[in-house]
């Protein structure tokens, strides 16, 4: 299970809306306890080349390092990635699966016609064969 407060989820939705019609992305920082708790987010620039950002995102290795360092400074862990799917369902694509890590949560927000609609979270199985949906607990 992934726990997140309404404000952070709203910030993720606003990021997806602000990057529309391209995919927006960022990091989930938090605790790896059960349930995982998102404590902070770190939006990043989609570095995918022009013309493909509408259905792909790319996070640079330096951004991963910066996010990991920021999480460590806050006493947190890098627990996942969030990204948006413009005018597409909030289910992971095959492209998402190929680049995913089994230990992360992947929070995907569907953004239809510029409006964030709904977010769902996913975790990649250890054998990397597929994602399973992870329940989200949204609190104040």
TrEMBL record:
Keyword vocabulary terms for this entry: Hydrolase, Metal-binding, Metalloprotease, Protease, Zinc
Coiled-coil boundaries: none
Keyword Iron: no
Annotated Pfam families: Prok-JAB
BP GO annotations: proteolysis
All copies of domain MPN, residue ranges: 2-140
GO molecular function annotations of the record: metalloexopeptidase activity; zinc ion binding
Segments passing through the bilayer: none
PANTHER family attached to this UniProt entry: CYSO-CYSTEINE PEPTIDASE (PTHR34858)
Name recorded for this polypeptide: M67 family metallopeptidase
């Amino acid at each position: 299970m992934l726990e997140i407060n309404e404000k952070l989820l709203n910030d993720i939705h606003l990021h997806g809306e602000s990057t529309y019609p391209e995919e927006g992305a960022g990091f989930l920082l938090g605790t790896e306890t059960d349930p995982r708790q998102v404590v902070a987010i770190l939006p990043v620039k989609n570095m995918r080349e022009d013309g493909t950002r509408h259905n792909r995102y790319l996070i640079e290795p330096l951004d991963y390092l910066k996010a990991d360092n920021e999480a460590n400074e806050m006493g947190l862990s890098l627990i996942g990635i969030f990204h948006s799917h413009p005018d597409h369902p909030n289910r992971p694509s095959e492209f998402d699966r190929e680049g995913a890590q089994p230990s992360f949560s992947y929070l995907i927000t569907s953004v239809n016609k510029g409006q964030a609609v709904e977010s769902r979270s996913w975790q990649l199985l250890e054998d990397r064969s597929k994602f399973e949906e992870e329940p989200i607990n949204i609190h104040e």
